[in-house]
């Protein structure tokens, strides 16, 4: 079977290869370093019971930093990031999970922050566009978007970049067709797709050489 | 979204107890359908019970087939080697749906319970028999180009389940394990899970209030191994199906020993076509047979002005899918 989903024909998509396992391992080590010990257990809202009603203090770990914010259960992660934590890099496009502008990583997986509640994400490691660069050193995906002019108005760009980073890590950017398919959850109304594709594919090829 | 209370349930018992105490509440897993509906004021719940901590995960072989925990995500199941190898149509249905981000979030149980994308249902400014019983159905004479042609009624032509997974699960005889309270489980075949639009349009499945989907089991079969999911849509990715086909064939010596056929995008529910299966079984795996099966599958179609094209589209989709698996 050969398709845009699995361009590498007959092998099952999870079949390991050195690049992906390297990325997974390195991601795992990074994850370990960043995650609080047994966070999901420790920070679970203690047994039966704790009903959260109205504005309540919760702790979110964003870009390796713990933040305590007071939110109602109905507040999305997206609104919490933008309105409470001043992390406005993550964009609100459609607010209904149709455009990808709000993409962040939760425990390393690309996720739509508009369709999850902040209260559900306690104890997780959340990474936003602000957490990619190391000081003044841009993440390779950010640098590639600049080099390939992967944007016009820029509104979808943080989501594109967060999705692109994950797409490469997942091993879903090995061909142009596969990369288009696995980046299809991020819409760009300006139509910068060819340049976005070039940027993500370049980072993927660099990763495989590394 | 309306204001609501939120509780993270630690056990299934706790979750079902909470729902029993507040019947108007809802479970939340991935949240991708529920929060979308709540933001659009199409669903309002005074309480959400977060079930993500429940032990409803795991993908394992059992004597009844592959058992998948209802909290497994679309991504993890779609790329799982056992699913890819034994149920290619299920894997493809999952990975051709939604976007990578949504697939990372959405649980299988939630996917099965997604609601229609009928524009009139989703816009509270319009009447809708599904939303407000007896208010009318503007889709009948309005824009219904993406709506159903099989199993429709005079009061609703929505494809109640617009997705892909349940189409493949319906084809391959999957069975849901439902749990209403501790120790109270029942098994329901996917083919009997969805309800056609009759007198109780708001009731779309046999799931009872507070009942949880805990697992999905798909029997092992040669026709499931030799299967595919073909999806036709208005753009090449990230869109709902206009028509889709989940098919599986067991072909020996050029003759079809067993066949499974289900259609998506055209039915008021995921549309298993036993008529097509009867036409295929025992016949040579040729285009003539496939055409006859496709004609049988669409025989009961009741298209309207803007979705008449779906009759031919669904037939061609089915024929091509059968050709692909017949090889």
The radius of gyration computed from the alpha-carbon positions of chain B, rounded to a whole number of angstroms, is 19 Å
Instruction: Describe the global form of chain B.
Output: globular
CATH topology of the largest domain in chain A: Ubiquitin-like (UB roll)
Considering residues with a beta carbon less than 8 A from a beta carbon on another chain, report the largest interface and each chain's count: A-B, 48 and 43 residues
Give the fraction of residues assigned to helices of chain A.
Answer: 25-40%
Short description:
The complex is a heterodimer of chains A (210) and B (327). Chain A is built from 7 helices and 6 strands; from the N terminus they run ααβββαβββαααα.
Topology diagram in text:
The complex is a heterodimer of chains A (about 210) and B (about 325).
Chain A: H1 18-34, H2 39-42, E1 51-52, E2 56-62, E3 65-71, H3 77-84, E4 103-106, E5 109-112, E6 125-127, H4 140-147, H5 157-170, H6 176-182, H7 193-209
Parallel strand pairs in A: 2-6
Antiparallel strand pairs in A: 2-3, 4-5, 4-6
Helix pairs in contact in A: 4-7, 5-7
Chain B: E1 5-8, H1 12-21, E2 26-28, H2 34-39, E3 47-50, E4 59-62, E5 65-69, H3 74-78, H4 81-86, H5 88-95, H6 100-105, H7 108-112, H8 119-122, H9 165-171, E6 175-181, E7 184-189, E8 212-218, H10 222-225, E9 227-232, E10 243-252, E11 255-264, E12 271-272, H11 274-280, H12 287-297, H13 309-326
Parallel strand pairs in B: 1-3, 2-3
Antiparallel strand pairs in B: 4-5, 5-8, 6-7, 6-8, 9-10, 10-11, 11-12
Helix pairs in contact in B: 5-9, 11-12, 12-13
Please describe the structure with a list of short key phrases separated by commas or semicolons.
heterodimer, A: 210 residues, alpha+beta, Ubiquitin-like (UB roll), DNA polymerase, domain 1, 2 domains, five-stranded mixed sheet, 7 helices, B: 327 residues, Uridine Diphospho-n-acetylenolpyruvylglucosamine Reductase, domain 2, Enolase-like, domain 1, five-stranded antiparallel sheet, 13 helices, FAD-bd_PCMH-like_sf (chain B), FAD-bd_PCMH_sub1 (chain B)
């Amino acid at each position: 079977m050969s398709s845009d989903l699995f361009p590498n024909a007959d092998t099952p998509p999870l079949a390991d290869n050195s690049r992906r396992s390297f990325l997974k391992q390195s991601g795992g080590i990074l994850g370990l370093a960043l995650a609080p010990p047994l966070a999901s257990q420790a920070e679970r809202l203690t047994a039966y019971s704790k009903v959260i009603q109205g504005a309540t203090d919760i702790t979110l770990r964003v870009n390796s930093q713990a933040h305590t914010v007071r939110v109602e259960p109905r507040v999305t992660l997206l609104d919490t990031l933008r309105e409470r934590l001043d992390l406005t890099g993550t964009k609100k496009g459609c607010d209904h999970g149709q455009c990808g502008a709000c993409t962040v990583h939760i425990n390393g997986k690309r996720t739509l922050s508009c369709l999850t509640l902040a209260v559900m994400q306690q104890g997780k490691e959340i990474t936003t566009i602000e957490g990619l660069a190391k000081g003044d050193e841009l993440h390779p995906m950010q640098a590639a978007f600049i080099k390939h002019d992967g944007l016009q108005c820029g509104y979808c760009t943080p989501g594109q970049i967060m999705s692109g980073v994950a797409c490469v890590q997942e091993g879903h950017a090995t061909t142009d067709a596969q990369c288009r398919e696995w980046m299809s959850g991020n819409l760009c109304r300006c139509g910068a797709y060819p340049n976005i594709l070039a940027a993500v594919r370049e980072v993927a090829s660099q990763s495989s050489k590394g | 979204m309306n204001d609501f209370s939120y509780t993270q349930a630690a056990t299934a018992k706790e979750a079902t107890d909470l729902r029993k105490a507040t019947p108007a509440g809802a479970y939340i897993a991935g949240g991708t359908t529920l929060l979308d509906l709540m933001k659009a004021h199409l669903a309002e719940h005074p309480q959400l019970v977060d079930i993500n901590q429940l032990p409803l995960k795991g993908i394992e072989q059992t004597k009844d087939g592959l058992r998948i925990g209802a909290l497994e995500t679309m991504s993890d199941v779609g790329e799982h080697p056992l699913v890819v190898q034994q149920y290619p149509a299920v894997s493809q249905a999952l990975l051709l749906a939604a976007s990578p981000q949504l697939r990372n979030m959405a649980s299988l149980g939630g996917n099965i319970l997604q609601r229609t994308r009928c524009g009139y249902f989703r816009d509270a400014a319009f009447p809708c028999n599904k939303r407000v019983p007896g208010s009318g159905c503007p889709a009948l004479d309005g824009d219904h180009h993406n709506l159903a042609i099989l199993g429709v009624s005079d009061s609703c032509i929505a494809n109640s389940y617009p997705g892909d997974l349940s189409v493949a699960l319906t084809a391959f005889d999957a069975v849901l394990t439902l749990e209403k309270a501790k120790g109270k489980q029942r098994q329901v075949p996917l083919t009997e899970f969805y309800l056609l639009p009759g007198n109780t349009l708001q009731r779309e499945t046999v799931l009872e209030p507070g009942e949880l989907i805990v697992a999905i089991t798909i029997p092992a079969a040669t026709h499931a191994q030799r299967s595919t999911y073909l999806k036709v849509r208005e753009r090449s990715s990230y869109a709902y199906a206009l028509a889709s086909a989940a098919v599986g064939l067991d072909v020996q010596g050029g003759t079809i020993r067993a066949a499974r056929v289900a259609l998506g995008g055209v039915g008021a529910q995921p549309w298993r076509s036993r008529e097509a299966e009867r036409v295929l079984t025992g016949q040579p795996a040729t285009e003539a047979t496939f055409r006859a099966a496709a004609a049988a599958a669409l025989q009961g179609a009741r298209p309207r002005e803007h979705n008449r094209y779906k009759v031919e589209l669904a037939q061609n989709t089915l024929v091509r899918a059968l050709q692909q698996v017949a090889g």
